[in-house]
Specification:
Number of domains: 2
Oligomer: single chain
Strand content: 35-45%
CATH class of the largest domain: Mainly Beta
Number of strands: 20
Largest sheet: 11 strands, antiparallel
CATH architecture of the largest domain: Clam
CATH topology of the largest domain: outer membrane lipoprotein receptor (LolB), chain A
Shape: globular
Length: 400
């Protein structure tokens, strides 16, 4: 951000759905897939279509994390059986996502049985080793060391790259590099501030022309601490609530630094290319960059709200001020989900504008939106931020 502080991106937002039960009578389910993680309280497998199924490990010697660690290896093809945990009185069809405090993974599936189907093929092991889900904190599974690969480089095959003269694209590349530097400076010293937020959730059945119905109206104080947005003093549909821990789960647009750090992380397989020049509503010249990242890259997983996750590919656009290199808007589209996954498309957008706090002007988030496509229809959340205040940071980018 800048004091001119800026640059918050939408973090994960989830609409919770009922799981598909193979045996509705006792809420039992079973899956076969590649074993990718065993932590102290969670086991994770990847299905053939890329979905990640997470199950809670029960207390007990037979299915303890230690026993699974000793018995199984990374990539083993296993079958797991378990039952979905219902919680009475919940607004989400009776299901509640139990969160693993160690990993932050939500799962309402209790593991009952796990058995080895076979050892993995070389391709299956390679896929497991390259999977994002195996990188979860506290993974106990052995990580076989892969031999180093010699790059296919030779003086016989090398060609000298073309050297281009000054051009409009080179100017755009220079602005992009400046933006990378500003983003890294911001992420190294995340500021804290408070803003009044108004969030509206709309839903529509699946139709060529959506028919939106307001499901939730939310007014709150949005406290931004270290890039994370926490809601306090909430009024939801006319009812006062103390904080967001008391909110029923629903799709809600949030402004966080998650996508920002992922897009500009130099270690992530994200391509960023100059697309075009444009201007905003106040005639400020902007450069538009298009980014794309493949499946299983550095972006976080999408969660179905029960026990399945998926590391989907991402693409989107970044709008950057040509003169100052500051991000005005970022949009991100997530597609490529397996047919059996709960959502088919997920879109996020955040906008920043200049606001005044005390005697200084800052670039801060002024709106965020999230749109989710599911089998049954669409959910659309719009959040607006105003009256930004109480700004605290050890260092910032400012102008007077």
């Amino acid at each position: 951000m800048i004091a001119r502080s800026w640059l918050f991106l939408v973090g994960p937002a989830v609409l919770l759905l009922s799981p598909q039960l193979s045996n509705p009578a006792d809420n039992s389910v079973q899956f076969t897939g590649s074993l990718e993680a065993v932590t102290h309280h969670t086991v994770s497998i990847r299905l053939a279509d890329g979905r990640i199924v997470d199950a809670r490990i029960p207390d007990g010697a037979e299915l303890s994390a230690q026993s699974l660690f000793l018995k199984y290896r990374m990539g083993d093809v296993v079958q797991i059986k378990g039952h979905v945990v219902p919680v009475a009185g919940n607004e989400r069809d009776g299901y509640f996502p139990l969160v693993d405090e160690e990993t932050g993974i939500g799962r309402n599936l209790d593991l009952e049985q796990i058995s080895l189907v076979r050892t993995p093929s070389s391709d299956e092991l390679a896929n497991a080793l390259s999977s994002r889900s195996r990188m979860v904190k506290g993974n106990l599974l052995a990580d076989p060391t892969r031999p180093g690969e010699t790059p296919d480089v030779s003086l016989k095959t090398l060609t000298r790259p073309a050297i281009n003269g000054p051009s409009g694209k080179q100017g755009a590349d220079a602005v992009l590099e400046r933006t990378r530097t500003l983003v890294h400076q911001y992420l190294a010293a995340l500021p804290n501030f408070v803003a009044d937020s108004t969030t509206t959730l709309y839903r529509s059945p699946k139709a060529a022309t959506p028919k939106w119905t307001v499901i939730e109206s939310l007014r709150a104080e949005a406290h931004f601490r270290g890039g994370r947005e926490v809601l306090m003093n909430i009024v939801r549909n006319g009812v006062a609530l103390p904080d967001d821990a008391t909110l029923p789960a629903a799709l809600r647009a949030r402004a966080s630094t998650t996508t920002l750090s992922e897009v500009f992380n130099p270690d992530c397989p994200v391509t960023i290319d100059f697309e075009k020049r444009t201007v905003d509503a106040s005639n400020t010249p902007l450069l538009v960059y298009r980014f794309a990242s493949p499946r299983d890259s550095c972006f976080g997983s999408n969660w179905d709200g029960n026990y399945e996750r998926y590391f989907a590919p991402r693409e989107g656009e970044v709008f950057v001020g040509e003169a100052d290199g500051l991000v005005r808007e970022i949009s991100c589209i997530t597609t490529g989900f397996p047919p059996e996954f709960a959502h088919s498309r997920f879109e996020e957008r955040v906008k920043w504008d200049e606001v005044r706090i005390g005697d200084e002007r800052h670039f801060l988030p002024v709106s965020s939106e999230t749109l989710m496509f599911t089998r049954g229809g669409f959910s659309w959340s719009v959040a607006e931020y105003a009256n930004h205040r109480h700004f605290e940071t050890s260092s910032s980018i400012t102008f007077h």
